[in-house]
Amino acid sequence: MIEEMKTAYRFLIVMGLGAVLLLFSIMVPVASSDADFSIYNSGWNGCSQLGVKAYQTGSFLPSVDVSTSSEEKIHHLPLNELDLNPSDSAIMIIGPTIDFEKEEASYIDDYLRKGGIVLLADDVGTGNQLLDGIMTTTTRISRDIIADLSFDKQPEFGVTTNITEHNLTKGVNRLLMNYPSTIIPSGRCIPLINSSEASWLDTNGNDDIDPDESLGPFNIMTIEQYGRGSLIVLSEPSLLINQMRNKFNNSNLVDNLVEFMTEDRSTLVIDEYHRDSANPVRVTTNFVKRMNFASKTGILVGITAVFILISTPYPKKGWKLLERLLNKLLAEEALKRPTKEDVMATIHNDHPDWDQKVLTKMIRDIEGER
Question: CA-CA distances (angstroms) from residue 336 to 330, 342, 345?
Fold first, then answer.
């Protein structure tokens, strides 16, 4: 009885370990957030698909501050605390909502001078604080919203084909925008994407072209050399979010940006420090559904079978039971076999005229008797 209880306990332990292993194989920690433009946000307004593209290049470097982060909230480093080699790295700043410090602006100014690449995608003007610290550029975000007679659904969803040929715009012939702002460019800017000639600044939001409202086209994306580096400014960050990725050639633009900023560079940082603190990045646990129910059941059955074969007396008992059954069947078969006398009697009844001595001799010869 004690041995049987030990076996039962061992069985429960093995089954528990099997279940735990299965759970660990499909449970993964995931950093998540619902902040606009966050690479940790897999919703319509996040940039998780851009983050995946960056990760696939092998250059993505998380800017996490390990010393202050926890499962409840992940903290990221400000720009001036990034330890980067300007000639071997790039920085993406997408939809910032938290102000930039003067130290960060100075860091970006020096970073660009020494060969860094920076993308600033902003439509509300927060990025102007950063541009103010870049000494030799006058490029700014206007904050004005473009409406367009070339639109999808409504004038604020402008469609443009006014695109300059460049590595950043290869395969990009038509883009769909979502409440874009405009760029006030410096004299050194190369305009890469402009709104259509049917666009205007709808300053009063009435969707009509009023006499005092400026007419397009307007700069949407520009690039300019700054020292040994490159500054890319995009006044329509919504081009980069998940929902807009599959509209027209928007995904080509996103892929081009990532490829341009990682070509011959080992490090790409996507700024998450300048996000709304009301939408922190947290670590959650998600199930990865790569194994179907049949596979999980098969693994558990296999573990159970191996345990029974190795750790219990039941296989031996089974073999003994099978041996007894076979012996019984063989014995019954032997009992059913007719005797020599039975055979002789049957033949004599069927053929009374046959010689009994000759028959007896034949049966002995068949059985090997002398």
Answer: 10, 12, 16
